[in-house]
């Protein structure tokens, strides 16, 4: 072994390979064997393209590197290399031409080093943190391929580490996102900036088994010499999304309950009409409305005739059916803008805004009286119910007690006039 051979084998952190003019291996160092995994017997006489990826071999990358070295004497670049067994790694490569005294190229010397290993040696604390990180962590090269990944990445995505290294980052996302992501990735490398987790993006990752998982991602630029890498932390947010979904459902249920309670606070449970409090509130608002010019709010006070007899004859259950039917018939006789409210027991009040005089109010009351008096068929039985109705016009600005007292008085006059009648005051 010559002195140069001894010196060559003494370099163990670089893979040094001598090639002939055609690019075939003529000398294989101990560092090259440690880096690439091939023994000297396996590679002597083989083309240097053996250490390139299949895609690079098909593109004639090994031959182009030698042409550049012949033209420039020495070229430096970064690229992907393949170890025995097929595992890929990102390498810094220097190719120098060897010439004889006449200047003719007689061979080449290729020096390769594992960039990920260099980074681990240069930044040991960072890579210890990378290993210990609770999130999946990948280091991505400018060409979008993964140069390094931690154990959490294996667990999250289900790939062996060796299969991840050298693969494009897009393999870890669903097909529908890949094309756009290539452009996003290029934009990030052109203008890198730290991006924290917790954004509003709806991100998904793709596991090896084809299942999708919601993720959150942070990005950090990672300069290494003249090359920019990107560190990506990927967090499975399935539990967080499920928790947020539960919270949303709970909020929706709470809103529904609140709406229901608000409705129950305004609605009479038996008839579905607005209740006493809501009716009085609407009447008070109408009376205080300064925009109402004069007596254009009609009020009807209605009371079922002989309702106690209906309850005594048919029972309270049937009595409830009668009240509900009366309320429904009243609603069907008025406009959507009118209010039909149950004041309590068998008493109901109807508010008719925007009417034109007492005659119109009485006309609506007569329509209601006739409709209510139609027979009620319940479980094969025929029940008759009528109402006495007091009609009046409200005066804007008057008090609610004054208004309701006048309507109530009109209703009692209708009772005195024989029931099933309309009386106006």
Helices and strands in order, then pairings?
Layout: H1 3-10, E1 15-20, E2 25-28, H2 30-36, H3 40-43, H4 54-58, H5 61-72, E3 74-82, E4 88-99, E5 105-114, H6 115-122, H7 124-132, E6 136-140, E7 146-149, H8 151-157, H9 161-164, H10 175-190, E8 203-206, E9 212-224, E10 227-236, H11 238-266, H12 276-288, E11 297-304, H13 307-314, H14 316-332, E12 339-344, E13 347-352, H15 358-372, E14 376-378, E15 381-383, E16 387-394, H16 400-416, E17 422-424
Parallel strand pairs: 16-17
Antiparallel strand pairs: 1-2, 1-5, 3-4, 4-5, 6-7, 6-10, 8-9, 9-10, 11-13, 11-16, 12-13, 14-15
Helix pairs in contact: 6-7, 13-14
Describe this structure in words.
The chain is an alpha+beta fold. It has helices spanning 3-10, 30-36, 40-43, 54-58, 61-72, 115-122, 124-132, 151-157, 161-164, 175-190, 238-266, 276-288, 307-314, 316-332, 358-372, 400-416; strands at residues 15-20, 25-28, 74-82, 88-99, 105-114, 136-140, 146-149, 203-206, 212-224, 227-236, 297-304, 339-344, 347-352, 376-378, 381-383, 387-394, 422-424. The strands form 4 sheets. It has a 5-stranded antiparallel beta sheet. Strand 16, helix 16 and strand 17 (422-424) form a beta-alpha-beta unit. The longest helix is centred in the middle third of the chain and has 29 residues, at 238-266. It starts with a helix and ends with a strand. The mean pLDDT is 89.
In short:
The protein is of the alpha+beta class and 425 residues long. The protein is 42% helix and 27% strand.
